[in-house]
Description:
Layout: H1 3-9, H2 17-41, H3 52-59, H4 62-85, H5 93-121, H6 134-143, H7 147-154, H8 159-162, H9 164-184, H10 189-205, H11 213-218, H12 220-239, H13 244-263, H14 265-270, H15 278-297, H16 306-313, H17 315-335, H18 343-376, H19 379-385
Helix pairs in contact: 1-4, 2-4, 2-15, 2-16, 2-17, 2-18, 4-12, 4-15, 5-9, 5-18, 6-7, 7-9, 9-12, 10-12, 12-15, 13-15, 17-18
Amino acid sequence: xxxxxxxxxxxxxTRIDGIDLLRGLAIFLVLMLHVNIRLRIAKVPYTGxxxxxxxxxxxxxxxxxxxxxxAVSGFLITSITLRRWGTxxxxxxxxxxxxxxxRIAPLLLAxxxxxxxxxxxxxxxxxxxxKTGGLGRALLAALTFHVNVLEARxxxxxxxxxxxxxxxxxxxxxxxxxxVCSLLGRGKLLIxxxxxxxxxxxFGRTVLAxxxxxxxxxxxxxxxxxxxxxxxxxxxxxxxxxxxxxxWTLGGVGSALVVFILxxxxxxxxxxxxxxxxxxxxxxxxxxxxxxxxxxxRWTSPRFLAPLLKLGQYSYEVYLTHMFVVxxxxxxxxxxxxxxxxxxxxxxxxxxxxxxxxxxxxxxYSEPLNRxxxxxxxxxxxxxxxxxxxxxxxxx
Length: 396
């Protein structure tokens, strides 16, 4: 297959509804988890009468959501690289870094500035304690992609800082991806490397974590299987045109795997899948199958899923800003005396306001700066990105 054909099959400039819905589901799970954690800390017994599996699926699925983000990210970065440069080995490293900086840095740097200011004001939800290294250590970790390492060694950071562990994983991926593609992009060694990461992921979440709870969830290797599977999916979609029957099969299997892990996670753990870290890998495989089907069918989302679709489209901005919303409304909930009748509205309001805040930040800050930086870096870069959907290039 020619490089042009490969680029076309990797995806065009239009958004892919199926992928945006997967990201929407992922960020929904993260939002539910973070509200749930606040309620648990405040000892609000709001889950009485609910089954253990329902509680697990609705309120403890944030880590599953991040795993889905990683799979989507691996797919998008690889498919966009194929579309822009034709082959992975032809990647222009400097331009790749510039594009990633333009997309990620404006909002990340603004967030760190705001968090630093709030730290100095002494607000209890935002102060980085000395035992974790203080503000300077947290800033260094965020800017050098090792918040996950810091938390594994010194303990968890405040909520707004803690979420940056996943960016540390993704940014490390972005750092090495163009270098690896430039060296191995033409041969089978790249495929072997990606398969190796996919196989080692469960070990990174279990035996190689050596009992460190934070590292079991936050390690580079333990997160890299989903990213690697996303990369492999992009390469497969670029080279293969599946028949209608094959797409139905892939979609059915992918849906079954995702539903099984998200909806029957307790069974997965009893069957030792969770205990050995395989539940995350299974979820990543299911997500990648759905990504492949979405990329080749260009399935259009029904209108009733529009809120989830929008949530996915702004997932990066929602992810980085949602803890402000969580803290604000949770503090209001506490001030009102923790009334049980307000627990469902608390979840709903946090999700709605987080989505609106993310959309506003994207429309009026991060995307305009993204475009500004790309334009400033020259006509060559603009020519390479003219067919690129800006919002489709990151997870969330």
